[in-house]
Amino acid sequence: MLVLLAGIFVVHIATVIMLFVSTIANVWMVGSSTTGTISSGLWLLCNRTCNTLPVSSSDEASLRATQAFMILSIIFSVIALAMFIVQLFTLEKGKRFYITGAIMLVCWMCILIAVSIYTARFTGIMRDFERPHHGYCFILAWICFCFSFIIGILYLVLRKK
């Protein structure tokens, strides 16, 4: 049981770190042009220098929603990690990890919403460039989506042990 809890704790910390990286770094979409590689994130459009991400007025609300849900996912993941530590040492067997599992599933839902909005609205943002594709931040966000769901379910299952 202790090894299982330690493993979940390590995966949870890795998820928090990957959420930070995927939200902060500007490599959600990558493309090529005559001036070099261009990357686009949630905050900036980077070529040789980084500038504010140019979005149309109709897409601005979607971009803000994506940013907000990614930030919320980080907040909920950190809160769930703190709650895990608190509940591990304060609650008795059978009552542990309800709150932690629920908060982690809320984090999972925030990631799902953010990445879905980005996929629906911004994957075609670099059509003018050669070979546009998703960058590592987009992939990290999907990995965090999977990890947060698995961790949330494991916390709910571990409440009985």
Structural overview:
It comes from Semnornis frantzii. The chain crosses the membrane at residues 7-29, 68-90, 97-118, 138-158. By secondary structure, the chain is of the alpha+beta class. The chain has one domain (1-29, 60-122, 136-160). The protein has four helices and five strands, in the order H-E-E-E-E-H-H-E-H. It has helices spanning 2-24, 57-90, 98-122, 136-158; strands at residues 29-33, 36-40, 44-46, 50-52, 130-134. It has a five-stranded antiparallel beta sheet. Helix 1 packs antiparallel against helix 2 and helix 2 runs antiparallel to helix 3 (98-122). The chain is elongated. The N and C termini lie close together (8 Å). The mean pLDDT is 87.
Overall residue-averaged pLDDT value: 87
Give the tally of structural domains.
1
Distance between the termini: 8 Å
Strand ordering within the main sheet: 4-3-2-1-5
Low-confidence stretches: none
Global geometry: elongated
Order of helices and strands: HEEEEHHEH
Membrane topology: Multi-pass membrane protein
Family: Belongs to the PMP-22/EMP/MP20 family.
Subcellular location: Membrane
GO cellular component, one term: plasma membrane
Could you give a quick summary of the protein structure above?
The protein is an alpha+beta fold and 161 residues long.
